[in-house]
């Protein structure tokens, strides 16, 4: 059940504030009140009101400044500006500050009710759109089979983490891993079993990683883990733990339990020379192929700067 909308009343004059709060309350809304701009902005952040009723005449931070600050927030909070009767100049300034509607004082309760209802309708439509947009954005970044990040999302993370590491000169490691002889799983047990294996391996990596790490599926049976603030020994410890964990999985499939192994390659930037995100990926990929060549079910690590220097 949706809660009663919360209306924030902002007015410096205590008597008119109380009167407005009383009227809004009698219309069936929940209320909160603020007597100045600073307090109002803090309350908006904390309480997330559905609508703001804002007096235009206030000391220090007037209604225009407050309206502009509310509109600069990343959430949509409708603002109804309370102006004097026939105060066209205030309406014009309020409009350019971002106020959504205007009401002339003295306020008629019926007029107030109509304006609030109309604004709340716009607010709920806007909120529903924003929710749908956020859901789509999440879907666009998620691999449907495993629920972890997809390649598109991984590439963005790789770019962002590379820039952050370079800028603050903090170490950064990238691990790429690939399921060994995965074709055999598909060929022997079928595609559905193959999918179950991919899901189980993704879950293992997700469980092993920290919240600040990012795990992504970047190919059919190929995954990546970004490890910010992680040097080469740290990446080796993580890779080894993950390798062992995956090798110990028993994945149910029909009447049998499937076992798989993974090969891993890592690249670490150790704050020496500069590097590009693509270098990290290339180097981790080369390390992975080293692991495949040397017999699979193992981890190979490359240092980025050392390779560039040689
Ligand atoms: P290697 O040890 O060298 O990695 O051998 P491999 O058999 O794992 O390597 P290869 O890259 O030749 O095979 C990968 C297979 O993964 C081929 C493809 O059919 C299968 N595959 C890719 N995506 C999916 C998927 O989403 N589901 C399933 N079940 N199989 C997939
Ligand atoms: Mg493979
Ligand atoms: Mg592969």
Distance from first to last alpha carbon: 65 Å
- Helix and strand content put the structural class at alpha/beta
What binds here, in terms of ligands, is: 3'-deoxy-guanosine-5'-triphosphate, magnesium ion
Report low-confidence residues grouped into runs of 5 or more.
Answer: none
Layout of helices and strands, plus pairs?
Elements: E1 6-10, H1 14-26, E2 30-34, H2 37-47, E3 51-55, H3 63-71, E4 79-84, H4 88-97, E5 101-105, H5 109-140, H6 151-168, E6 172-179, H7 182-189, H8 191-208, E7 214-217, E8 222-228, H9 232-247, E9 251-253, E10 256-258, E11 262-269, H10 277-293, E12 299-303, H11 304-309
The structure holds 3'-deoxy-guanosine-5'-triphosphate (GH3) and magnesium ion (2 copies).
Your description of this structure?
By secondary structure, the protein is of the alpha/beta class. 51% of the residues lie in helices and 21% in strands. It has helices spanning 14-26, 37-47, 63-71, 88-97, 109-140, 151-168, 182-189, 191-208, 232-247, 277-293, 304-309, and strands at 6-10, 30-34, 51-55, 79-84, 101-105, 172-179, 214-217, 222-228, 251-253, 256-258, 262-269, 299-303. A hairpin with a 2-residue loop joins β9 and β10 (256-258). The longest helix is centred in the middle third of the chain and has 32 residues, at 109-140. The model has no long low-confidence stretch (mean pLDDT 94). The structure holds 3'-deoxy-guanosine-5'-triphosphate and magnesium ion (MG) (2 copies). Residues 178-180, 182, 221 line the site of one magnesium ion.
Main traits of this protein?
single chain, 310 residues, alpha/beta, five-stranded parallel β-sheet, five-stranded mixed β-sheet, binds 3'-deoxy-guanosine-5'-triphosphate, binds magnesium ion
